[in-house]
């Protein structure tokens, strides 16, 4: 009687554990379904980004779904074959989502379609290896077996299978560490949502194989990354990728609140020279292209932590933390030099030059953001008038604005 009660208690514990694991997986699947349903469900201009994000999410859902038959068939000898098939598929597919995440992270960091496609091609041998090993295990059980009772048992090379998913994760971590000073803060936080929790969950699952943690943690990370990208999208100007006017105003007022007499900020107000003529001569599509290229020029000339926003039409504002006038002059020079390089190599029908007004916010002089913008706007028009009355815009002095 006592032994029977102990067996019943153990059976109840096992069933309770299976139900808990299934609940976690089902919750993760529902969460990812909501992500697909409500995030990125419209036709945006960043086609590759959205394709990679959806493919990453769907592939995680497939791996999660494969855990369900693995759990249900564990310890059931009558469906041992079903258990072997689902377990093999699980190990074949488990590295695909992580390689897709490498591609997604690369595109978010570099915005270079060709480079991202090359990165994904470079990872194909890794995917081939991670696919071949579980198939090999069907014939030579080096990694795991499912015995006659339907129970999963590790073999001596199982750590190799468990270690493979960490290869792309470590590659992503390395990139994030190397580029930590060049990343947009919001984007950086979003990209960290996945690798760190997954590494921690993987350590636990390495020692306790019955725990289902890694993929649910990835599901939470996808949700966090999706919300981050959605927030970034709402804060960006649809055409150029610079921050939009609403976010620019919010950011400037935040800088104002945090300003002190000895610690303020500075800004450029930049006007695209002869933009109306580009529109009139080459059409609005070319004008849009000129604005997009201008933002690329600005972003490549300043740091990722500097705030590039579209103020109105062909006017842009860049906000810096520096309060050094010489540093501002050098930054303006870098923008002009980057534009010169673009004009020399791009082969466009138009050339891009800029009039740059600049200033350091003075709480006593400016008082409000509107006054500060007005002051650097006047400085910009002073530069523009000087260009119209001289050859100023064509000289090569580093101080030209």
What is the element layout, followed by pairings?
Elements: H1 2-38, H2 47-73, H3 80-93, H4 96-110, H5 113-122, H6 124-139, E1 144-146, E2 152-154, H7 158-163, H8 166-178, H9 185-192, H10 195-207, H11 214-235, H12 245-258, E3 266-272, H13 275-282, H14 284-301, E4 307-312, E5 315-320, H15 325-345, E6 354-360, H16 369-388
Antiparallel strand pairs: 1-2, 3-5, 3-6, 4-5
Helix pairs in contact: 1-2, 1-11, 2-3, 2-4, 2-11, 3-6, 4-5, 4-8, 9-11, 10-11, 13-14, 14-15
Short description:
The protein is an alpha+beta fold and 401 residues long. The protein is 65% helix and 8% strand.
What characteristics describe this protein?
Rhopdopsin 7-helix transmembrane proteins, 65% helix, 401 residues, 8% strand, two-stranded antiparallel ribbon, 16 helices, Alpha-Beta Plaits, elongated, alpha+beta, single chain
């Amino acid at each position: 009687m006592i032994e029977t009660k102990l067996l019943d208690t153990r059976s109840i514990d096992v069933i309770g554990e299976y139900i808990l694991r299934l609940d976690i997986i089902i919750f993760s699947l529902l969460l990812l379904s909501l992500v697909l349903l409500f995030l990125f469900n419209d036709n945006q201009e960043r086609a590759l980004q959205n394709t990679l994000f959806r493919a990453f999410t769907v592939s995680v859902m497939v791996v999660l779904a494969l855990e369900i038959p693995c759990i249900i068939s564990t310890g059931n000898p009558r469906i041992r074959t079903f258990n072997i098939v689902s377990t093999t598929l699980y190990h074949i597919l488990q590295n695909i989502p992580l390689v897709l995440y490498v591609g997604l992270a690369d595109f978010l960091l570099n915005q270079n379609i060709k480079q991202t496609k090359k990165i994904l091609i470079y990872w194909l041998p890794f995917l081939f290896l991670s696919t071949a090993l579980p198939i090999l295990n069907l014939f030579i059980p080096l990694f795991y077996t499912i015995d006659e009772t339907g129970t999963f048992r590790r073999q001596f090379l199982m750590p190799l299978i468990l270690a493979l998913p960490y290869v792309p994760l470590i590659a992503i971590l390395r990139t994030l560490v190397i580029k930590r000073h060049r990343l947009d803060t919001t984007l950086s936080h979003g990209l960290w949502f996945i690798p760190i929790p997954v590494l921690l969950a993987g350590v636990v699952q390495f020692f306790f194989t019955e725990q289902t943690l890694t993929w649910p943690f990835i599901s939470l990370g996808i949700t966090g990354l999706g919300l981050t990208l959605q927030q970034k999208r709402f804060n960006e100007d649809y055409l150029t990728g610079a921050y939009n006017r609403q976010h620019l105003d919010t950011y400037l007022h935040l800088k104002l609140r945090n300003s002190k007499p000895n610690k303020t900020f500075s800004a450029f107000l930049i006007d695209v020279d002869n933009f109306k003529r580009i529109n009139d001569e080459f059409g609005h599509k070319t004008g849009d292209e000129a604005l997009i290229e201008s933002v690329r020029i600005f972003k490549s000339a300043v740091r990722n932590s500097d705030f590039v926003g579209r103020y109105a039409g062909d006017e842009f504002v860049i906000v810096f933390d520096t309060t050094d006038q010489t540093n501002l002059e050098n930054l303006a020079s870098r923008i002009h030099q980057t534009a010169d390089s673009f004009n020399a190599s791009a082969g466009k029908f138009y050339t891009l030059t800029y009039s740059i007004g600049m200033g350091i916010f003075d709480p006593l002089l400016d008082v409000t953001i509107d006054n500060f913008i007005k002051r650097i706007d006047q400085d910009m028009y002073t530069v523009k008038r000087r260009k119209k009355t001289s050859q100023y815009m064509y000289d090569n002095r580093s101080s030209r604005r």
